[in-house]
Specification:
Five copies of one chain form a homopentamer. The longest helix of chain A is centred in the C-terminal third of the chain and has 63 residues. Chain A has two domains: 276 residues, Beta Polymerase, domain 2 (2-Layer Sandwich), CATH 3.30.460; 37 residues, no CATH class. Chain A is rod-shaped. Chain A is 51% helix and 15% strand. Chain A has 354 residues and is an alpha+beta fold. Chain A has a seven-stranded mixed sheet with strand order 2-1-3-7-6-5-4, with helices on both faces. The N terminus of chain A is likely disordered. In chain A, strand 5 and strand 6 form a beta hairpin.
Chain lengths: 354, 354, 354, 354, 354
């Protein structure tokens, strides 16, 4: 299966709005978590039935409903009905091969993006799609499986750190997106360190290893860019939105997020340029090495081939070959050999090959 | 005949609006199919004479008239007259070398695009031009030959799946375009898998085979891009159209289609970048292989050429050559040879060639 | 003389509006042809004196005045005076090194572009500048020499084909431009066929011939692009012009022309990309061939150099060289040679060089 | 640690507005300097407690408060409170890995940029982040450590040179930014000289040294571009700002600064292009050198290999080998050798290798 | 000193508006020339004291004051005061490392650009900065040294050629700029001829000479582009200016100038592309030549190495070596040699190397 554009084929021929879960089934039983808070109160509930959550729409508190697992069609359909979501939104939630985007509907904003997580131990980046539905006073998040990067946000809510408890739900949405982009940048940093290390390795001696690394890093940057570029687009779109769902005092934070995204995209491009430079460097080093090999070959050949020829001359069996009979001929012969070799060496020294 | 810009020469010197069928004659007898539906009724008729279809303009039902085969000039002219089409529209329907586009006229929208179909068995992509004329309550489609990608849409109409039966004719047009773009993405996926496979092949050993594949894939991507880029343009144009022919509740679907087109174009570009990287990789691998060949040649030459020279010395026939008479000269001679060889091997080991 | 930017030096130091004919003198006596038509009447006159033409400005018929030959300054000055042209227009008519462009003046539109013609027999593209002045009811065209691509248009006028006889003069101007762009596309097609043929030739074996072809085609595409890009610009400009000189029912035709120009430009760019790919392919093939040559050299050297060395050993004249005296030494010697050769062949087979 | 995107990881999981100092602790005790001036008076004070500075907000004089050292969280928090700064501004002041930017708040402008300084002796560029807060009549500047490029500005204030003493605080801010950009250009100049020197070195003979230089310069230009491009952006933004904080008679100066930034960016791009050209040149020179090496090898091999073969012939021990017995055979033999060598030399001369 | 960004360092730390002459002192005594004309009168005066010129501001005639030499600070300061120039304008006049630009002030336009002159004999392009100040009815021009490209304009004024004497001062400014751009194009033409010649030289045989030429031409194009691109920008800006200083009947001329600039920029880009293609061609030719060299080496080696081996066999001194004693062994031996050589030649012929 092609890595960069997957899972669309499952949709081929379905009506738009038909619910199809595109993605691997990553969790057995979907779990629903509700966090409800006001500046003064906080409640966290594991919810069994999605219908129990619907009343939060009327509540004045900020409600964050997180759903892990996307393969239970009935649950998604039920959620969509309960929160009055457009059929396309429901299709987008389920299609995990989606290009990150923001859609504005009458009563909510829909955002889908990629959440990436770096596993320090295994040195592996895992990625999953996150769908956000931002309503008047509630936030729905849909994840493919449990485990996310939002623990710091949850802790801030619990410990009343920062302004999150005193802010509206759009600030919560911003906080989640900010955490996601922070993780992008963290991953780019880690990758960047490895790319910069590789450059030194190439300068020491260009091995096949470095070549494969360049190739892999390029792939990973392409993959990152595929998630980050559209993220920058929708954050920009968000900062220009004239929607009541984004309150004016959340706007400076979104502009800040926008700067962060720009920085992330620019850094990815910068590392891509660096990898191109590295490949150029690699090729130049390989060319240099070929030159060196050829020099050694040429020096050996050019010195010994004439010497061998001279020895060949006196290896002939001509009956009348006057030099052979001379008393010191053998020593003169050696002298000539040494002289020829010396001249050759001088020639190569002049050419700066030695 | 040039592959990318064909069939214009047949038009050279004709008056614009003159009908000329540019394309191979792909069907013998054009067939006309009329599908007429309301939420409650559905009728499908094979029509003998295009004039029988004209009354649908007055009917409140949604009518989809599909015409297979373009070489019957009289039929096209008749259709144009019956549905009040501009002469340029009629020329565009017939010119299958057309760049995909959307034209807005007073009473209808004209869209021409490429319909692509992947034959799973033969692994061949076939492409033909599709022209759509979207009127108040009818949709005309013109195909070069029978057989298309619209069977799922027809089935949805028949089985009342999704919202198609309860929607207006612009939703039908959207459904057809969506199916076409889905097929683009499906084809890009298939091609992408092959491109990604090729990369591994190159890393194993760069053969001429891989080179030709890179070349072919590049060509195919150019060909795909030529159809998909203008498609993205006209879908964008469609979403911004202030025409009554596109109802406001169809707009979210067209925006969704636009995202799909963007994703398709980006993926094509991404694969094109990957192919460039593959060619770089191929060249680097070829350079590496040349280095390896040269190393082997240099090692052999540099070891044996001096040895041969030494043997040559003692093959000379000098009368006075003292070493020849020594008792163990031959063994010393071998010793020297082994020593020289050992020194050379050490030298190459130091250079990390062995 | 530089090919791409010629003939400006003749203008150096002249006052703008000073008339200087920049170009080779391509015709001896300029000829003036007047075609005057209404839906019902048609007259074609060879005019001796340009003054005889001036009354057409007052006539209700459509008048097309074509002037072949630009070196008669007096004629041009007279024409300029008679039709009330701006001095810059007159300078632009004469300067055949002009970048194609459209200028809007109070009472007329000025367009200059390159007219290209493909000579099927000689396989040569000839190019000349065409200047158009589009007035209320007249069209002036200035050509460098007789012979143009407009015969189909003249025939349409004569035979009342299409809408030309019933349309206004702006439709006539459109028809001429359409014919010119049709010829661009025809030429690109011809060039494209040759470019695509060249690719197969390179894949068969990269010769110097293919290299020069790539180089020539690149040059020709640069040359084409220099004419076609500005043409696209001014057709776009024309379609956006809010001038009474372009009637509203001519606009759809100009938009169609615009699509044609876009297609032409995109195809030129596409072929340019293909040529870059071809050069890459060529270089890769050359690299592959070098590899093959080196392999053969290395195989020969690596097999025979050790063998020659062994023969050299037994060619030495050591007095005590025990092997020489053995009864089957010569056969053992051959055995060793064959063995060494076999080992080397096996080594190269393992490396997949054979 | 990756060089281009550092220090974000420390922020991971913090609430926006949480103060974290990202950067090395570069100074022990932060120092606060207040310069207060009117056209007639000037006072410079080292301030112990930031609270002593707050009254300047009410003073009619221009006040410039410079803070060296960012690691004292309390000081920054206090300053923020005293001057009524947004939490994001305070975060931006402390995050020294920030992308340069301008943010407009209700009562102040916030600018962060990189200040670069070239140490003539050590030939090292040091860089630190400078944050500016421009209020109605005060300017706050935050530096990571003591020592900056602003001494000329301070002297102009002291000596009443130019218009600075008679201008408002926005002119002071402009003066600081102008000094920073002047230093960018000075550094680009220095780097440019070295880049241009390198080109001559490559033409003399492409060494590994030049290759590493190309690589280093590329890196440094990337680094410079990362600071200068956003600077151009925010200066442009500044010139378009409709804020009362920028007085209309300061605008021409900001436009001038904008030209300077454009020049800086263009020059960086230009040098980057030059480095790419240098790498091409280097590779071409390496290719040329390989050709030269191969030529020498080929000349030697092609001359001596046939000669050695001929000598080999007469080294054979055939019992019946008539030439060996001829009286002048040895001289004829030499004649043949010389002839063969001469023919080869002529062949190579014809090929223009000698 | 870096060639592309010079002389800024002298400004480092100066207050904006401080006058510093950046540039070499190119003339000893500045000269001031005043040309004053109306349709009927013309006066040309060498002015000793700049104050004598100030009254022209009140005169109804068109006045052109040209100042050669910029190092006399007092003169410039005096001029600035007399014509009421902004301090930044005065700084810009003196800073000859300036990026070409146009600045609009309340009562005048300031333009700075590069004036280039091609010396036909020495084949050298000299460049100097020209600053223009266009007021209501006067034009100030500042040159670094005497000698410019404006003699044709002066002659037109003297001889009343064209419309210059009857036009306002903005037409005079246009005429000067037009002359400057004409000279750009003339220089590009000259350079273009040389570039096109070089291509043929490369095709004949790629020498080091051609390589250095490619390199030099690239540099010169970069240099030209640095002057011409900003010129295009400010001419565009000029054509859109809503200033009373540019009269409406001068506008068509400025639009014409704009086309000329576009043509100049496009041609520079085109030649830059051509140079890149030439470098590719050069490298390909070098690769081809390497192939040819290797072929010759391989043919010689592959033919003679086996032959030498065979000769070596029969040079061995085995006591029992039956072939040596055969009567026609020597002739058979030669036969074998010829046969082996013939087989090798046939093999190479099959490979199409001969």
């Amino acid at each position: 299966m092609a890595r960069f554009l997957k899972n669309r084929s499952a949709v081929l021929g379905k009506a738009p709005g038909d619910l199809v879960f595109v993605g691997d089934r990553k969790v057995d039983n979907p779990t629903i978590t509700l966090i409800e808070y006001t500046p003064d109160s906080l409640e966290r509930t594991e919810v069994g039935n999605i219908r129990d959550v619907f009343p939060v729409k009327e509540s004045p508190a900020v409600s964050w409903i997180n759903i892990n697992g996307l393969h239970d069609m009935d649950l998604i359909r039920e959620t969509g009905r309960g929160f009055d979501l457009h059929p396309l939104t429901m299709e987008d939630i389920l299609n995990t091969g989606q290009r990150p985007k923001l859609e504005e509907y009458d009563n909510y904003l829909f955002i889908s993006c990629k959440m990436m997580k770096y596993d320090e131990e295994k040195r592996i980046v895992s990625s999953e799609q996150l769908a956000l539905v931002l309503g008047e006073n509630f936030l729905l998040t849909f994840q493919e499986r449990p485990g996310d990067v939002f623990d710091p946000v949850r802790e801030r809510i619990r410990k009343k750190k920062g302004r999150i408890r005193t802010s509206t739900v759009d600030y919560l949405a911003y906080s989640l997106l900010d955490t996601i982009v922070d993780n992008y940048i963290y991953i780019i940093e880690r990758l960047g360190e490895q790319i910069e290390d590789n450059e030194e390795q190439i300068l020491e001696g260009p091995g096949r290893d470095s070549l494969e690394k360049i190739n892999n890093y390029k792939r990973e940057l392409i993959y990152l860019r595929k998630s980050i570029r559209p993220a920058r687009e929708f954050v920009l779109q968000m900062s220009r939105l004239e929607s009541e769902l984004i309150r004016s005092n959340t706007l400076p934070f979104i502009k800040d997020l926008q700067d962060l995204c720009t920085q992330a995209v620019e850094t990815v491009d910068l590392y891509r340029d660096m990898l191109s430079d590295q490949l150029d460097l690699y090729n130049t080093m390989v060319g240099n090495r070929l030159n060196e090999i050829m020099k050694i070959l040429t020096i050996f050949s050019a010195i010994f081939i004439p010497l061998t020829f001279i020895a060949g001359i006196y290896g002939t069996n001509f009956e009348y070959l006057p030099e052979l009979g001379f008393r010191y001929a053998y020593y003169v012969f050696w002298g000539v050999l040494v002289l020829v070799a010396a001249l050759m060496l001088r020639f190569f020294k002049k050419k700066k090959w030695l």
